[in-house]
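Box 3.1 A note on notation
Throughout this textbook, protein chains are presented in two layers. The first layer is the amino acid sequence; the second is a token string describing backbone geometry. Keep the layers aligned when reading.
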Amino acid sequence: MSLPQTMFQLTGRGHAPASLSNATLLIIDAQEEYRSGVLALPGLDAALQQIASLLDAARSAGSSIVHVKHLGIPGGLLDPSGPRGQHLPEVAPLPGEVVVEKRLPNAFAGTELHDRLQALGHLDLIVCGFMTHSSISTTVRAAKDYGYRCTLVAGACATRDLPAPDGSVISAADMHRIEMIALADNFATLVPDASSLS
């Protein structure tokens, strides 16, 4: 019995990882909620170091950078006017860097993200941020519909423990791994960490 293959392998439509020199770095929802709020993520610190490394490399290379910021519930999750809705300072945008605000998990839905990416002129996106199973997954899947090629940096993303219908808990690590495998099937080229990109 042969080993299973990804849809990319079966169709021959896979692509090599992007390089920072010819791609836009897309940082999704790197916000305080995921460090100190209700949605605090177990893997945040390690992922944040990876995002910071990508951001430093992109800035040094003069690469295109887009920060996505989720506008949450006033007084609640990702409160847009409170501290939990703010960018994590380690990876906050510098003046002049593009910031796209969203209200849904899919960063293309009801936003100017597609127009901003088109203006930057890159087909390839290098994607990182939070949460793997939610905004990362929905945005990467939607990006394919718009004709982009995503390179997903596994070590620069994180998610949280989730309850299963049977009362058990899916750990953040397992949820992250499963979502990465699903996205690598047909939606993104997967690399383990920031050092894997040129």
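The chain has a mean pLDDT of 97. The longest strand covers residues 149-158.
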